[in-house]
Amino acid sequence: MPLSDDQQSEIATLRTSPQSTLRAVSPGMEKHLYTAHEVLDHGFVRVVDYMGDDAAIVQAARVSYGAGTKKSRDDSGLIRYLMRHWHSTPFEMCEVKLHVKLPVFVARQWIRHRTANVNEYSARYSILDREFYIPAPENLAAQSTVNNQGRGEVLTGDEAARVLEILKTDAGRSYDNYEAMLNQEGQKGLARELARMNLPANIYTQWYWKVDLHNLFHFLRLRADEHAQYEIRVYAETICDIVADWVPAAYGAFEDYRLGGVNLSAKALDCVRRMLKGEDVTQETSGMSKGEWREFEATIA
What range defines the domain where residue 20 resides? Predict the structure, then answer.
């Protein structure tokens, strides 16, 4: 169960006690408040609080650019202009606080984005639940033979069963030993801060993660990408759906210019111009390395 009984009770109380407000409200985001969107086998993402909307981005931009911009482009057009020209400050006027439940190994990858405020569940003070991420069979894959940090062919049959059994057995054994070492029920045992070191990286943790929209877009650009690791990508995709409801104009621009767009180097742009003039450009005449040329061909294919 992604949410504990106490968390569900807390959410139910908050949902039945709405408050009137004079602050800007995003109708699309309101429907996500206190709703846990399930991710993986035991994880979730839920919105705890947010600040701002598309109008807040426009408001901040017009403070910088002056009232004259109102006459030359509508709000959506201004937001697209800001995104297109990498004017990031107005997007920082919006913030969101998320409650996320995720496997520890995903959390350690996630925390590399150091532009957010984080408060994580502490196993120094509390006992972690017996919940582990066990991949679905279709997500069990061998190491890629062409990418040192990617997955290759999906495991099947006896090999898939063998790996799943190892994952389940090791996780259960580690947790059994964790419980056996704890200082509880009259047993002297180990302090919680020491006993936790025996837990596997697929055990679930939780945190509150607060971030502004500019840095959230940077996170999503990397982690919602098709090349990102599956286990963090599904969290990013869930957050994408939430952000699309929260700031639809900003997310539309982000989807167009970042998720669906590409950046070309000066050499790549020169090759495109030469191709448009009818020149037969090859890797040898492009000025690019073999790796760059391979990526360039994939981009324009």
Answer: 5-133+202-259
Residue 10 annotated as binding site: no
Q: What is the percentage of the chain residues whose pLDDT exceeds 70?
A: 94
Task: Give 173-223 pLDDT, tens digit per residue.
Answer: 999 999 999 977 777 889 999 999 999 999 999 999 999 999 999 999 999
End-to-end CA distance of the chain: 44
Active-site residue (options: 73, 223, 273, 274): 223
* Gyration radius from the chain CA atoms: 24
∠ at Cα 42 (29, 117), nearest 5°? 50
Does residue 258 have an active-site annotation?
A: no
The answer to whether residues 151 and 223 belong to one domain is no
User: Is 121 assigned a ligand-binding role in the annotation?
Assistant: yes
Is the confidence at residue 169, as pLDDT, over 70? yes
16 and 89 part of one domain? yes
Residue located via tokens 């985001």: 29
Task: Note whether 116 and 182 are same-domain residues.
Answer: no
Q: Any known ligand binding at 38?
A: no
Say if residue 271 is in the same domain as residue 191. Answer: no
